[in-house]
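Q: Sequence in, structure out?
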Amino acid sequence: MADKEYHKQYRANYKKKMKYVNVAVPVSMHEELEKLSEIEKVKVSALIRNMALAYMHQKTFVPREVESELREFTFLIRNVANNINQIAHHSNIVKHMVDENGLLMEIKKLEDMVKDYTLQQLKK
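A: Exactly. Output:
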């Protein structure tokens, strides 16, 4: 009996904290949302909630797959930055920098590639 009372109280507290919103969408849009929700491994309602929250907070909804790839890019770019610090340290020791401009141009190319890739993935 205590378990039944606990559940009753839990549901009452839940109703005070949460509001339900019903949204009607065309069948074709629902099919697209279902496909995306399968990729994201969430229910359609959670997907819509996540998209709405991202919009509300003026952030971009980033699909899970893209987010994972961006984490990998971040890791690699940090490794590049660490290597640059090591090169700078070595250059300070020997008082000579080997092709500073070329190194900076390669970093700029890397940055541009990551931006282009990200924009392409978000347009899908």
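The helical segments are 2-17, 27-40, 44-56, 64-94, 100-123.
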